[in-house]
Each structure stands twice: as structure tokens, then as C-alpha cells.
Amino acid sequence: MTDLKLSSEEMALLEGAEGAGVQRAMEIVVTLGRIYGAPDLVPVRHVQIAGVSYKNLGDAGVAFLNEWAGEGAQARVPATLNPAGMELGRWQEMGFSPDFARPQMEAIKAFVKMGVIPTMSCTPYLFPDYAPHRGDHLAWAESSAVAWANSVVGAYTNREGGPSALAAAIVGRTARYGYHLPENRRATHVIEVTCPVRSIADFGALSYIVGKRVGDGVPWFADLAAWLPPLPKDITLGGDAGDRLKTLGAGLAAYGAVALYHVAGYTPEAREQGEALIRPNTSRIVIDSLAEGYDVMDANPEVDKIDLVTLGCPHASISELRRIAQRLRGENLATRLWITTSQITRARADEEGLVAVIKAAGGEVVADTCAVVAPVRSLGIRTMATNAGKMANYAPMHSGVSMRYGDMEQCLDAAISGRWRKKSV
After folding, report:
1. What does the pLDDT look like over 120-133, one tens digit per residue?
2. What architecture (CATH level 2) is domain 8-182?
3. Are 178 and 33 in contact (CB under 8 A)?
């Protein structure tokens, strides 16, 4: 274990110079630094905090947040929140129980008291005010956002826990270890993809196969750029490339523990350093079919009646909302449709008239939450369909639902008909 060096200011925080709440935060950051052998602490530009839904927090978690807030702790760098368990302003209308809503609101109030911005979204990189830049040090807890920041942007962050991310926000620092160090960002596996990867769902299926094989490694996709259009200058818009990479990173984190991947000739570090980023003697994995991923994610082929179609995991971008609205214009849905997104993105979609089109068809653009962290079974939902690899993994485990998985067109067709239909070839 290396000796963690602290500045005089950091030592003062650790010794309680700014109160018990800041001292508690500093103890968490320093303890993690010592466990992982960090040489020092690094200032962070932005923090993303997970563990926000009451479904995950429970009463003990809410009490912990209230205690910390009561000690006067305040975020000293911009810090945003992951999704809650319900849409805060419409929970009654959407059928959530007051027994769930009251402690959920209490948790959000504790975060806000500590100066955290209640964005309630897993996609802070889609917000112009918080989108990271190349070389930024961050302390992000949302696994899909970590993969995006490290890979697509070339920022530096480990996957923080909920309490450690909040601690980093309060002290403005995190320990310099893991992906904050350039030597840990080199590729451990070379992935050759020899089959087509066309849709968002295809990228999700690919994420299952690769995530299971590389675990917490760093994959180098040797030829995936052939299936990716150029990234737009404004990545906060999403776009075809951004929406595919959003799904890829989320699935790699969910099915493995991938926090960083490289795409040859495409992602920032891969463009800058080329194959020098690949460690010597790395294993090579050839993916010649996505069937393995689809077989697992489309977990209940016997199910055809769908209670809820859910799109937007991670939260939908404005480009996804545009595609959905285009398909639903003039349609009448036979079952529930949730497109989950942030308040910020929904406001933009509302200005463009997209929300009105989706609502006219019978769908909902839901903010603040998603079908993973919401108590969907309490709403009578037993079967779901999605095009999101992360959702296909977590919703059956966390919500006990049966799952169908396919591309966006299949999902929207299911919302229109109420039933899942095999994709025509």
C-alpha cells in the first residue's frame, strides 16, 4: 500500500476544519485512496451520483442521506443525480403509491439540501452544461455514463459508488487510481467483429457477448468503426453514432464490468495513440454472430402480449425522440409506451412538438425515472419489450418481468399492436 499524499488543505478537511459533513466525505475519499494505492487526490470537474431511487436506497439509505445533509455538507463542484424511482411531478397521475413517493421525495430533498442538482438522469453527457471534455477528471457512479465519458470523450473516471461519488462532490476530489492513470487505460482484449452491427439493438447484443468475455477488461474494437457514422460535433444531440455507443457502453458495463473501451480510428485515445494503446500479448476475440446476445436478451420467446414497451435506457436523446415521433405520427397505441428521458431533453422535445405527437398516439415521455429503478410491478406490469441491452439485463432481475428484446421498429410495432411479432427477414 502506497502512502497517500495530502495537501495541507486536504489534511484540514480530513481533520474537520469545515465540519462533520465534509470530514465524513474526506474520510471516504481518503480511505478508498489508501485501499487502492492512490498516490494522491485529483480535483474533479463534475460528479454524477447513483443510488437515488427509493427502490434501491430503502429507509436506511434515506436516513443516511438526511444525516449527512444535517451535518452541513455541501457539494463544491457541479454534481447531478441519477434517475429516481418515479417522475417527481406526476407520480400520482402515473399510479405510484404514496408509501413509495414520500421517502423518494425525502431522499431528493436531502440531495438538494447538499447542493446536488436534481437532474434525475443517467445521461449527464447529453446536457451542454455538464458534458465532459477530453482529459477532464470526473467522479461518476452511473456505469453507462462512466463508459461514455472514458471511451467516447476521453475523460478520466472510475466507477464510483453512490456514497463515494457524493463524497467526491462534497470535497471536490477523488483518489487518483484506476482509470485516472494513463497506464491503466490500455486495451486488454482485441475484438474483431465480422458480422453486421446495424441497429441500436445489435450494439446491445454485441455488448452482451463482449462484456461476458472481457469482464472488467478494456476492449479494443478493431473494426467497429465500419458500423458507426461520424460522431456529430455536438455530442449532446445523440445522433445515430451517439445512440449506438450509448447502448454499447451501457451493455458492456451491465454484462461485464467494462468502464472503458476503444474503437480503432474512432474514439479519442484510439485516434491519438493507435495500436500503442494495446497491451502486449492481448487475447483476440472474434465475434461472427450476434445470436448469442439476442438469445439471452430476448429472454421469454413464449411471451407475445406486452404490458409495457420501454425505450430510453440509458435515457433517450433528442435524436431518438425524433425517430420515435416520426414512427408514431397518426398511430393509436394498444399498450403502454414509456420513452424515458431527462427533464432537460423532454423540454427540448416538447419545444419541437415531439411530445405532443407521442402523447397523441397514447405514449408517454417519462422523465426522472426508468423501468429499471421504478417499481413497475406495482403498476401491474408483467411483460416488457425494449431495444436497450441494459434494460433487458436489469429489468427481469430487479422488477421480475418477462422480457422481449429487439430493434426500435419491433418495439414500436409492439406498442401499436400490443403484441410482439417476429421480425420479418
Report:
1. 999 999 999 999 99
2. 2-Layer Sandwich (3.30)
3. no
